Amino acid sequence: MVLQATLIGDLQSLVGPENARPPHETTTRPHPPDFMVDGIMPEVIVSPGTYEEVAAVMRYANATGLGVIPLGSGQYKGTGNLPQRYDIALSVAHLNKVIEYEPADLTVTCQAGITLGSLSNRLREFGQMTPFGSTAPSPTSDPSIGKLLATNGFGNLIYGTPRDFTIGMRVVTADGRITRAGGKVVKNVAGYDLCKLYIGSRGTLGVIVEVSLKIAPLPQASEEVRLESESLPDACRFATELKRRGVSLWEATVRRPMFRVDKDVSSAKVHILTVRLAGTLAGVQRSLAEIERLTKVGSARPVGPDHERRDEIDDWISLGPSQADRLRCQMSVLPSRVPELVKALDESAPGTSINVRPIRGKVTATLRTPHDETAVRNMRAASARLGATLTVTDCSPELKQRIDVFGDPPPAFELMRRVKQEFDPKDILSPGRFLGRL
């Protein structure tokens, strides 16, 4: 084991004295710092400024057997098991430039540390956007592009997810080689599409340092409509009907509001369907007219004044910097079985806050009991009976010691293990964080 002083000195010689620091020198806030993972602090935070410096850090870690977790800008919120080792926090925040932008070709190449908001601002000057991102990223939730790809996060019903619009990337391997996958043009069919492998691998196969993306025109108009329905199946059917009718549907979510009553909480008897529209001005206007027609004959109606409250779920679910004070699970199921899954969750884990994306077949369940292993097992069993998968995204580190947040390994797990062995034979990249503790 390399002593901390020696480790910091060695890394400072690679990236400069100002870019390799012990954690206590970069911790200035009272809440958990960005680089803390499941309550574990690294020995050093390193912030390379070039691809070559990233490669040098990885060669050093590979030679010394130190565990490295790549981090994007913003607070670390990646789903994963407890790391087996966490010696180096490798931040790509300094790799934040736009390398090449061709508005006429609808392509952009940028470094992985640039945030979605910064990239969106650059593209907005030419009336364009990243198709998988928000039309207006929140300043309080502005992930880096590399983090989005590593988790395959974000997405919408019109364009899809980052995996659908990534055409190339540069990746630094575990042994410190700078490699390229894909290219910078849309028509690129040479070789294996390794981009698909890296996207969603959560930093276990390589460090993404550069990305080439297809981009899309900004919507001419966007609107949000909030509707209420007395039953979840009715709300889901209404959303599905909107999709079938071809409205300009960016996203549709259903919430079962929870209100604070004295010191306790209670569930409302309605379900709130939030419909987000985006597209051409004519398309959005037609969509609004279509929604109005459907509310007159369908099972959903405009939200009444009694339910126009902004402190519904956030009033009792802690949304502070720490994820260890709540238990949150994300499930994926056939869209037609979403209501059945929610009913099973209510039976297996009463008091659960529910958020549904009915068209995608996504269900998020949140409880105020971050250590509740029984609730996880009950929800996982209920999900399995309906052919759903369940991933624990937020919970306490203590619970992670007892469960695999991804559940039981799939039949193809041995293939996944061999891929990990091929790309990272010394197991230094996010060791133990992925499915099956890879």
Rounded Rg: 23 Å
Can you summarize the main beta sheet?
A: 8 strands, antiparallel
Q: Helix content range of the residues, please?
A: 25-40%
DSSP helical segment count = 11
CATH topology of the domain at 98-217: Uridine Diphospho-n-acetylenolpyruvylglucosamine Reductase, domain 3
Structural class: alpha+beta
Summarize the SSE layout with pairings.
Layout lengths: L3 H12 L4 E2 L22 E3 L4 H14 L3 E4 L16 E4 L6 E5 L4 E5 L4 H9 L3 E2 L15 H7 L14 E7 L5 E5 L11 H5 L8 E8 L1 E2 L3 E9 L2 H13 L4 E7 L2 E4 L2 E4 L3 E9 L1 H17 L3 E2 L24 E6 L5 H11 L4 E5 L4 E6 L5 H13 L3 E6 L2 H4 L12 H11 L15
Parallel strand pairs: 2-4, 3-4
Antiparallel strand pairs: 1-2, 5-6, 6-10, 7-11, 8-9, 8-10, 12-16, 12-17, 13-16, 13-19, 14-15, 18-20, 18-21, 19-20
Helix pairs in contact: 8-9
Provide structural commentary.
The chain has helices spanning 4-15, 51-64, 116-124, 145-151, 194-198, 232-244, 281-297, 338-348, 373-385, 397-400, 413-423; strands spanning 20-21, 44-46, 68-71, 88-91, 98-102, 107-111, 128-129, 166-172, 178-182, 207-214, 216-217, 221-229, 249-255, 258-261, 264-267, 271-279, 301-302, 327-332, 353-357, 362-367, 389-394. Helix 8 (338-348) packs antiparallel against helix 9 (373-385). Among the domains are: 98-217, 2-Layer Sandwich (Uridine Diphospho-n-acetylenolpyruvylglucosamine Reductase, domain 3); 221-307, Alpha-Beta Plaits, CATH 3.30.70; 327-400, Alpha-Beta Plaits, CATH 3.30.70. The protein is of the alpha+beta class. The protein has an 8-stranded antiparallel sheet, covered by helices on one side. The protein has a 5-stranded antiparallel sheet with strand order 5-6-10-8-9. The chain is globular. It is built from 11 helices and 21 strands.
